[in-house]
Amino acid sequence: MGDVLERVKFHRGVGVPLLWQSAVFNAMFYVDSFVLGFVGPREVAAVSAGAQVAWLYEAFIACAAYVGGTLVGRLAGAGREPETRAVVHHGYVATAVLAAAIGIPSFVLANQIAGLMIADAATADLMASYLRWSIAAYTLSTFGMVVETALQNLKEQRFVLHVYAAEFTLKLVVTLVLVFGFGLGLAGVVASLLAAKALRLVLLLHGARTRLPRLRASGRPADYGWSVFATQAAPLALSVLIWNVSTLVISSGFGQLPIEQYAAYSVLNNAMYLLLIPTEAYTKTVAILVARLLGSPLGRDQRALSDRLRDVTLAGVVLALATAVASAVYALLLPLVQPSLGGAVQDTLLDLAVPFACLVFTKSVTDSLTEGVLRPTFKNRFLLWVEVAALPVTVVIFHIGDIDVVSGFWYLVLLEGLRMALVFGRQRHWLRNEVVQEAT
Q1: Are 86 and 48 contacting, i.e. CB atoms less than 8 angstroms apart?
Q2: Sign of the C-alpha dihedral computed for residues 426, 61, 163 and 70 taken in this order
Q3: DSSP letters of 222-244?
Q4: DSSP annotation string for 135-172
Q5: What are the helix and strand counts (H, E) for the chain?
Q6: Are 121 and 112 in contact (CB under 8 A)?
Q7: What pLDDT shows up at residue 439?
Q8: Under a CB-based contact definition with an 8 Å cutoff, are residues 182 and 244 in contact?
Q9: What is the pTM of this model?
Q10: Residues 253, 266: contact at Cβ < 8 Å?
């Protein structure tokens, strides 16, 4: 593990800014709900429900940006930085295609989507309005993400961090001024979202103009042509879509439980994303390093590549163990620091401490293998089949089976454990049987 740890320390300029980026990114999602809590329950419900759909939309159309970022990393590892602008140009077009395919129908059918998610008509109207403007805002954001992933793989993390900081600052200031100063409520939140995403796009486009290497006419377009985006972005987008559907199935299944059990689930589910911020940053760092490694001469050395990925995996397991311990401590201490939750919720949180820690551990390891290794190696079709297999099992467990919140968490541990075993086995198979073929 020492070799990789030394490599990670050497690339601390990559990992530390990514950690701060993840923290700022997650903080932005809590601004709207926190501020609207002072406005009214309808606004909070509308934004919460609308954000779920908007995040799904962004995750879907961002797949082209992720594929482009991996291609940029491989080109950088091979010393072909001047060709990275061509990848970015292809990423713009692929993102526009995905945005048109999903964004236009979602914009037109916003009222119907809101009606399916919220029974109260007034709240559904607010959600539809928020969803339409969110689609526009996240479309702008995703075009910027094409540049962001390219700059990340060119080790421009500090510049991207400054963009995140500027976006968050503008969003926070405009939200506070419009909501509390002018009393605009949801309209103020929408305006701040659009302003922040527009600023983000402008700054990243400026970064593309000034920080991407100048395009060189020579090169091998087959390395990053349309066929690569089509064969990789499509299964990646579908796997993200199915994973999000599974998440909604799980959430709705827990929603059928008594309110005390659902409250305990909601508290821990929200906390899990904050607890996994270090894993997210580590995973992004590994993905950049793996992409660059695959483009370098070492990417054709099966033994060297195996040693590096083994060390990366072990480091991910150590991080997952530390995160799991922190998760158990959080679940055990939460009833003490928030007595207002009530006795039934507090007792449930204590019962969930162990399964919650196990869930966080398995998810942390799975994410580090999936996002950090398999996606940079373009095993997106395999990841799609994993999600296709997991969806019916999830439906059976959470909507046909009879569960309580504790057994539900243990089922989640089992599902995530199966994902972890599958992706680990796929990584080993690739290293043993496919590295040499892909290199040639």
Answers
A1: no
A2: positive
A3: GGTSHHHHHHHHHHHHHHHHHHH
A4: HHHHHHHHHHHHHHHHHHHTT-HHHHHHHHHHHHHHHH
A5: 18, 0
A6: no
A7: 47
A8: no
A9: 0.81
A10: no
